[in-house]
Amino acid sequence: MNEQEKFLSVKNIEVVYTSSGEIVQAVNHVSFEVAKGETLGLVGETGAGKTTIAKAILRILPNPPAIFKGGQIVLDGEDLVKLSEEEMLKIRGNKIAMIFQDPMTALNPLMTIGDQILEVLMLHNDYSKAEGQKRVVEMLEMVGIPGERYVEFPHQFSGGMKQRVVIAMALACNPELLLADEPTTALDVTIQAQVLQMINDLKRKFNTSMILITHDLGVVAQTCDNVAVVYAGEIVEYAEKVELFDHPAHPYTLGLFGALPAMSENSDRLEPIAGMPPDPTNLPPGCSFHPRCPHATKACEGDIPYTEIAPGHFCRCRMMKKQED
């Protein structure tokens, strides 16, 4: 991606947590880029560091225990790491917005859903209250909620409807970058499909860039342009979506696909990845995946190069092979 195409550029960021005197290596030198209007999927098991990456971009890591140790986060030519908290307040909810995983904990139970969206609008726009309320009604109706439900409280909504409220809140100021942290995990399959379609439609309408955090490869297939596979706080494979699905290279990525049921095959059992993710306070040397990898050798305990094995397809593994044409 050339400099003109870059909208978000994350370079070599590192985040640790302190816990009971121990250091948790949450994000380890992660780098990636997102173009305007593009969706990047961050895929991996629970605890891989995906949400920490998103919170680092928005600069909402709890400190303590989180410590941002270094790196660059450049949005539209501006390094967010160097901005003051007052300057970041103008960006959060306005230029960057986040859809949190659990809508119930993201909403204030003591405020009506309309007033919660209005609060975001009034913070970043020069609206009169009447203008703001009109805009809130428009946003609610845009996500499929009748405008008259403005005065209702979160407990009066189902899980799927609460998620729609959170999406309306995130999109209220037409953000240029949307961070979606497993926005459909708590929803049933039917509502999940509706919410994903709605996010895609709204993203196209506003030409919004998006980082989608998920462990569901089906959601990635439906939503993303590019995919970064995250394991133990680092990106182990990165490629355009079709390339990754057609030519997965890293043993961990192959394991994720192997754990999916194939409708075209008559298999009695799935093939889960052996073992458990590593202890982030004591990561293995070299490739963090090597204790679980069926192809591991002694060389995997040394430095692992991050190599371009095909145009735009990067992999961090000594066993990867350049794809055949």
Overview of the structural elements:
The structure is a single chain. With 325 residues, the protein is an alpha/beta fold. It is 30% helix and 25% strand. The chain is built from ten helices and twelve strands. It has an eight-stranded mixed β-sheet, with helices on both faces. Strands 2-1-4-5 form a four-stranded antiparallel β-sheet, with helices on one face. A hairpin with a 2-residue loop joins strand 1 and strand 2. Helix 4 crosses helix 5, helix 4 packs parallel to helix 6 and helix 5 crosses helix 6. The longest helix is centred in the middle third of the chain and has 18 residues. It is globular. The model has no long low-confidence stretch (mean pLDDT 89).
Neighbour order of strands in the largest sheet = 6-7-8-3-9-10-12-11
DSSP strand count: 12
Discrete helix count: 10
- Main beta sheet: 8 strands, mixed
- Evaluate the radius of gyration: 21 Å
Q: How much helix is in the residues? A: 25-40%
Give the topology, please.
Elements: E1 6-19, E2 22-35, E3 39-43, H1 50-58, E4 66-75, E5 78-79, H2 85-91, E6 96-99, H3 103-106, H4 113-124, H5 129-142, H6 159-171, E7 177-181, H7 189-206, E8 209-214, H8 217-223, E9 226-231, E10 234-240, H9 241-246, H10 251-258, E11 307-310, E12 313-315
Parallel strand pairs: 3-8, 3-9, 6-7, 7-8
Antiparallel strand pairs: 1-2, 1-4, 4-5, 9-10, 10-12, 11-12
